[in-house]
Structure formats: C-alpha cells, structure tokens
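Hi C.,

You asked whether I'd gotten around to modeling the 415-residue construct. I have! Everything is below, sequence then structure, no commentary in between.
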Amino acid sequence: MRKMQPDSMAVFFSNKFVYSRGDINFPYVQNEDFWYLSGVEAPETVLILFPDCLKNNHQEILFIKKHDAADYALLGPSLKPDEAANISGVKQVYWVGEFELILNELAPLSKRIYVNIPEHQNVTFASDSMGQKAQAAKLMEHYPAHKFHRSQPILRKLRAIKQAEEIALLNQAVQITEAGMKALAAAIRPGITEYELEAELTRSFLVNKAEGHAFPPIIAGGKRSCFLHYQKNNQACGAGEIILVDTGARYAHYSADITRVFPVDGIFTNRQHLIYEVVEKALQELTLGLVPGKTLDEFNEEAKQILHYNLMNVSAVLSTSTPQYYGKRTLNGPTNFSVAHHIGMTVHDTANRYEPLQAGMVICCEPGCYIYEEGIGVRLENMILITDEGPHNLSKGIPTLASEVESITGKIAIS
C-alpha cells in the first residue's frame, strides 16, 4: 500500500475453479498474489486495498463467498467472516454478493485503480484461465475515467525478497524434497521404471505433509535425460545408464526445485563421471557468484564462460561428441534457457531478471551438459539464498559429490 500512487485503490480477484473434463475440476489452487496479500485460499473472493479511503475502516476490505444450500451439500461450510478476518488480518469483511455495491460507492473516491493480471517473462501471452484479465476488463469498462495501473511491478519487487517466514517455508519444502529424493535414489536399480521411482517420490512427499509436487517431476533415464522438460516418466531404466531427477515438493504454497543425477548401477562409468564432475565443479563455482549487486543476465553470461572453460579442459576426451549446455545450446539449437531463476511460491517465481540481486532472494542455480548420442544428460540444481554474507545453499542436505551420490543409490529393493 505504501508503494501505490496517491488516491488509488487496488482490486485483487481470487482464482476460479478450473475444470478438466465434464464437471470434474482440478484441485483448487489460489492465485499466488492473492494468497500473498491475504492468506485466504477460498475461490470467488475479492480483496480491495485503498490506503487513502475516506470511509472509516475501508482501507482494506475482503469479500468472501457464502455457500448456499447446494454449495453446502457439496463442499461443506464456507469461510465465515470472523475466520477470514483472523486469517487475513483484514477487519472489514463482506459477502462477495455486496462487492459491486461497495465498489460503486468507493470508486468515485479514487482516481486510479490497480489491477492484477497474469504476467510471466517466459509466456508471451499469459492465459486467462483464472479470469483475472476478464475481471480487469470489466472494471475498465465500468470506470473509463479512472487511470488503471498494473500491480505486478510492485508485487514482483515485494515477492522477490523473501521474509524470514517465507524462508522457513522454503526450507521445509526443501527438507521434504530431500527425503523424497533420497527415497527415490535408494530404490534405483537396473530395470526399474521411471514411474516406479515417481511413485516412491510422491509417497515420500505426501507422508511428509507436502501439498504435492511443485511441478510435474522429471525422471529421465538414458537419452531422455537430455530433454530439459521430459515428463512422460514411462520408460525402464537400463543398466549402465544414468537417471536425471528434477523435482520439488510444494509446502504451504512454497516450492522447491532441485535436480540430481544418479547412476542406475550405483556407480558412474568413467565417461559419466567425467561429465558429471564438469557440471558439479561448475555448480560450485557458479554458486560463489550469487551475490548482491549482480543481475541474472550478468550471472548467466558468467555461467556460459565457466561452463565453456570447464568443457574445454576436457575437450580432448569429448572430441567424438558435441556437448551442449545451458546458456548456449540445447538439442534443438540456441534457446533462452539460463542457468538461474528465482523461486518462491512458484518454481519460476515472479521477479525482474534485469534488477540486481539482493539479500533475501532465493535463486535456483542449474548448470548442465548434454550429450544425446551417449545418453548422458547431467544437470545439477541447488536452491541458493542470497545474503550479505555470501550465498547459502538451502539444498546442501542432498549431496552433489559423485561419491556421495553413489553412496545413497540403490540401497533398497522395492516390490
């Protein structure tokens, strides 16, 4: 509210239910910005922030849905006003049926309205499956004399700097991911399928109280490890291959994102070990560069040089293959993939990659090297908290040293 322009109000709409087929809906997921500001997970909810409002106790207003008889029979009781106030800290709570009436009363007291529409740097035109664009368009139609502003520039800066409570939740998500990753690693053996390993991972996440996966897990054996977003997870893992696992648990709305590589036989071959060591060394060098004052673009340029240098040091051994790595080339030629991204409530969290890193940001660092014809795709990814004292690896409990990875691989047999 302090960052909003004078005489302005901000209107935030919750996500809608999304239906997969027929009348079957996907599990409800709240809009991250709405949850960040309110803590309320209920659909059909609206939040108004109006710091200069002249009407008493209407600087913050929350509107919630009251279940009718049909809703009650299907879903149970709805959130009560006093419960919503306790969760959100917003004292003025109305039923959502009163939203338009109260908005019509307050809008003439403002000159500007902030709206929150989907924006993401990796999506050319963000979809409106949750309805935020349509709601914003409706406001613009009803109040054409107002000036409208995007809320994202403010929210991106706020969400990029993690508070102590957020770091604690991210740590919990990482710890759950660590347990799942180790359970998966212990079950690896020749002939096991990627979906069996996914089952081990999912079971561990759920018994450790995760909400589920932060994103569809990537469990890729052999040549499939060279596809950056492989998601079928339906093939058997052969002897002599490696398995790339890119996964993260979601806990209390916060996401982990960690990648490790395991040898199916429990021991890396000399060739696999060579490539693995190049990437592991790059990961350690790159981590030291995650410091305040540097932009992600500058960091990615440094990463290209470090990866290139490390690969050239073993160029004689690699002369029969063409290694491809993040920041320069993937299987299909030049891309905009990079070795680092923000993380928080979402895996690729909202942030401005052209602004300098600051203490409190959490960054995923993920160098990789891919040799498709040999079935060797190695990517290692840690979650790094930026601090004024230096980078802090939140995921250090999941080993990256080749010998330590081998020590946790293939230690149990599952039936």
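If it helps when you're writing up: The longest strand covers residues 8-13.

Thanks,
B.
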